[in-house]
Amino acid sequence: MFHIISDKAAIAHVTTDLGQLDFLMANQFPTRKITTFNTNKGHRLISSASYIVQKFKVSYVDELPLVWNKKTVLVLSHLSAFNEEIPATIQQIIVVCCTFKPDFEHFTLTQNQEHLKVYQRNETN
Asked: Rounded to whole angstroms, what are the CA distances from 43 to 5, 35, 91, 97?
């Protein structure tokens, strides 16, 4: 998955995990800027006080709309549902270990593996 995302990507991450994927994405390329909204408030509190926030360009926000600011890649991980409108700035969506069946308007599935799906925004004329 990590080779799919640009080393300087601005990433919006929506998850329920404890920051493991944030750590892996940031550790591989420390120039990545990652803003994460965790749907689990307890996990959000734990993650926001972790080592990765101090060491890497990772931040945790309390409201979903705050995650979108100037992001180009959306990573969805460990979710059972996602029904939010995707902002026009998002060019790529990566779905990792989610139990819902994604159906993103204006995006085309470009990679389809068992626990990883990658979508690219359709080009407009």
From this structure: 24, 15, 27, 17
Report phi then psi at 23, rounded to 5: -60, -45
Give the pLDDT confidence of 68-117 residue by residue, as tens digits: 888 899 999 999 889 888 999 999 999 999 988 888 999 999 999 989 99
Number of domains in the chain: 1
List of E strands, the chain? 10-15, 33-38, 58-61, 73-77, 92-96, 107-112, 116-121
- pTM, entire model: 0.90
Asked whether residue 3 is assigned to any structural domain, the reply reads: no
